[in-house]
Structure formats: structure tokens, C-alpha cells
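Supplementary Note 3. Input sequence used for the single-chain structure prediction.
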Amino acid sequence: MKRIGFLSFGHWGPVRGSHTRTARDALLQGIDLAVAAEEIGIDGAFFRVHHFARQQASPFPLLAAVAARTSRVEMGTAVVDMRYENPLYMAEEAAATDLISGGRLQLGISRGSPEPARNGAAAFGHVPRDGETDADMARRHAEEFRRAVAGAGLVEADPRYAGGATGLLPIQPRSEGLEQRIWWGAGTRSTAVWAAEQGMNLMSSTLLTEDTGVPFDQLQAEQIAMFREAWKEAGHSHDPRVSVSRSVLPLTDDEDRQYFGLSALRESRDQVGALDGALARFGKSYIGEPDAVAAGLAADAAVQAADTVLVTVPNQLGVEYNAKLLGNIARYVAPALGWEPAPGRPEVRHG
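The predicted structure, written as C-alpha cells, is reproduced below.
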């Protein structure tokens, strides 16, 4: 494993025990946690995008603010539901954000997941064409977005107002290389193969919407192997990246045990259940003494197969607690997975 990032779902609400009671709290704390993560030596700050819910919804203002406050850490999404997106406007926002960051943007996109709104994308003005499914529309939006990000000509120029230019105009601005930093959130092995064929990096979560009876990490490792093989067969000119998400909570003091001690008993094994009308397998959480958490992750086949691990954070516990959590992961857990601070990152003291 080469990189560790945090993944925040950006929950907020005036509930008991929450340090993130408003949308403003969620946004400002997301920025502050990204700054703290960079100081610790963590590699990435990623945010979930979820519409019609008290979570992060419009990622680019947040990511641009993170970019302006940091200098090294990657920032990105996990993931943007492409059913909702205007591909060309998204391409403009993504390029502008990437330019502010100096080329550190990593955008996870997908066809979306079950959501609280019925036909939410239609409310945003996006309806499948005749013969299309929601998934087809999401993939079409993704292709249009990727073409725009790559600088393809899209709209006929009007010479009267384009300085005499003719032909097709590309979206502006463009950020060179961003097209190679697009990830597809794949929930199945076949979708991972499709992502490889398209030339997108693979982003795999803590669940897969299929089940073959094998442990989650083994099924996910099989997904990764199929992705890499399909990438090789496609003959792309650059190497892909692969990320997996995990819930990682080393218990180092009484505060940790108070929050998550019981969760260690409930969430220590995979779960299988129905999701959106299909059988799904959910990966276990890694909660416990730091040595045990490190050993469990070191034995996780998918963690070992990926080059990036995104650890989900309980963002409503506030910046101070989550910075402590990330520091403990960097100090006690990550070294056992082969992670170490890269040149230019602060050294993480062990023990």
C-alpha cells in the first residue's frame, strides 16, 4: 500500500453528541480536517457526495477550499453520482478546482447508489433517454464529462464572437492530466472490468452488490485482479490506481472505547443482505487494540492488492477527535501495511 486517505460522509445535524450540527459546520470542519491530515502525513482527503440528505452534496467549493489551504494532500470524491450531473458544467468546475490544487484532484464518480429521493436526478433535470436505464444515463454523463475534461471539441464556434475561430470549441479551462485522475466506483466485478476498459481508475467501497459466498476481502481482491487484467488487455498507456475503503478504529484510550467499544463486537465480521433489490456483501470493520487492527488489515487480501486505502471517519465527532484518530492510524496501524511518510511529508513517530 502506498497511500492512506480519509473518507468523510459529511453528516451533519442537531442530534445528541454531534459536533457537526449545521451544514456550515460540516464544510468548515471538512476543510480543517484536511489541513490536519496533511500535517499528520495522511495522503488524501475524500468526501462522499449524497443529494437530498444532511451530508456533503456540492463537492467543488469544498474541494477548492481544501486545495487553497493545503499544499500536498490529494483531495477528491468517493463518489459523485453521475445521474445528477451536467457533464460540461462539472468539467469546468473540476478543471478549475484542479488548477487551484496544482494537479492534486482525484475524482471518484459512479452510477450512484440507493438514495432518499425518489427520481432525484429527474428533479435536477436529468431523465434517461428512450431505452436508457438510470445506469446508462450515468455512464453517458461520465463519458461526456471525461471527453470535456480531456479537451475534446464539443460545440461549434461562432466566428463573430470567437475571434474568427471555426470548428469545435473545448470547455475552458482545462487542467492537463486530470483525465487520468478519474476513478469509477464499482460495486461488482463486471463493472470493474468495464471501468478498466474505459481507462478509469478503480474505487471499491466497503460493500459489493454481489455475493459468491467467499469473504468480502477475497471477493474484492478478485474484483481488483480482474480490473488489472482488463486494464492490461486494453493497452492503456499509463498505470491505473486502485482504492478500497475500510472502517478502521484503533482503540487507544477510554474515549475511543466509550465511542466504539461495543461496535468492535457488532461489526467484526462480514454481513450479507439485500440492497436495491440485489444481494450484497458488506465488509467488516477493523475495531480494537492497534496491534490487532494492524494484523487484521495486513491479512486483508483487498487491502494488500490496492495502492490506496480510504479510512472512513466519524465526522460528527469533530475535527479534534478525527485528527487524533488519523494520527493513531498513521502511528500504530499504517506502518504494518507498508505505508511510510514519503519525502516531504512529516515523519510520524511510532510508540
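The first helix runs from residue 23 to 40. DSSP finds eleven helices and 15 strands in the chain.
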